[in-house]
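I am writing to request your help with a piece of structural work I have in hand. Thank you for your consideration; the sequence and its tokens are set out here:
=====
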Amino acid sequence: MGKLVLSKVSNIAIAKRNILVYPPEPPMDLLFRDPTRSVYIGRTKIFHVPFYWSHEHVANPHIAVCGISGSGKSYFIKTFLLRAAFVWNANALIIDWAGEYRDWVRDSGGKIVRLGRGSYLNLLDLGGMKPYDRIKQVMRTLELLTDIGHFPEQRRLTEQAIEKAYLENKFKMDAREQKDELGNPLTPPTLKDVVRILREQHQSGAYEYPAELENAIYRLEQFTKPGEDFFAQQSTIKLEKLVTSGLVSLDLVGLPDEKMRALAALTVLQFIKERMRISGSVEGARKHELRLIIVLDEAWKIGKEENSDAVMIVREGRKYNFGMIIASQNPTDISEAIFSNVGTTFILKVKFERFLDYLQGSLNFSDYMRDEITRLGVGQAAVNMAFTTQTPYPTTFLLERIEGEEPTKEFFLDLTPALTAKQRRDVSVARTISFLKEDLRRRLRQLGLSDERVEEITKRFEKGNRRMDVISFVIELERYGAARRNISDLLKDAGVDDITIINIFAKVDLKKSGGAGREVSQVVLED
């Protein structure tokens, strides 16, 4: 007869036995997919199962990614795109808001397409659409980016002027193919034609509310001024090249503001959506393949608004035969409709409680999982998958780390020169902070540094075996014109406490003044 022995067993050990509790991760057959038909991400934290991502058993191929600066978000995206290209021969289009991916795309053999001075994207191009359908898209875009939605009469006048511009150029409003009598493609109108039509209507004096016309003209003129008419001239950027040339970065840094960048992103999304809808599945493509992946990183303006094409594409799931990756440091910059409808969400380290509240409310994961997310390190992640069938196991699970194609290259700032003697004796006080190389370069650009200055600082780190002391680092940034408040924010985001930041600026001021061995009574963190 056997003996019953009581002993202490950890929760993880019980979970692995799978007897008394639901398994803490999806079963292996959903995680460990055929490597020739899926993208390897990493191993799960509890069972150490290799996780190969596939969209076959999730609601759609779209992915949301969130995590603080330096958590490994961009590194995950780059790894995913490289492996998707290898497994599926997938094309990738990165709509690059801040030039963050420029260097990596170039180093990876991809193409950079710059939209700015000398490069144009005609807002009234049809991209295979009927003029009536394109007008609806243009008006929806203007409602997102301007206040025209609050002025119905101005909206009506603008819509009528766009229609007249097409008709003047001999377009048939309900046809996709637009050719002249000789069979040559028609040239589409531009926003400048629309403004001209509105002005002519105003000058005729026939319209009884001239102020409405004046405001409609004023609103469109912001997109037609010389030097800012990026969307009011005939296109120099060809859509076909954006989506069939392998890895492509559409660099929006040359555009003057967020509104212009959002207009570019929305227009490209609309054209691609229509092209993929018309063409349908690529001939010979297998069901599990993704032939095009579009990346929207920190595109808050088009990822937050409910009427945005980004949100509409996610809501409509698999309809358009391509996948989107929507990423942000701030989860609240991504519409809850996106989190609720994407097939997969990757959550890297999230710091603020309100962000965690937003994610937990959208994805409905447990308090245990919430606590684990706060403890994630660089490259570690929680994964939420919206499976197509009801499941008796958690849909959110943990990864040990995202395993990239190459070791993550980090740069280190030595804090020791700014620490007091007491702090140096305290073993719990951090001596260094680290940044992923590309993340640091992006943050330096956000401080206002030119590409040339960013390159100079990068070389200084590399010459110092990827290390620099924080005092020299701050002096360099200020020498290149970075504001002290912004430098302080960068250090805070990296985890440096306020007292140490005050010490850093005190030492910087002391070194600049040529002083040594004396205290500074006041440090100003303002500009």
About this structure: The chain has three domains: 37-119+237-402, 131-221, 410-513. The CA atoms of residues 113 and 250 lie 5 Å apart. The longest strand covers residues 396-402.
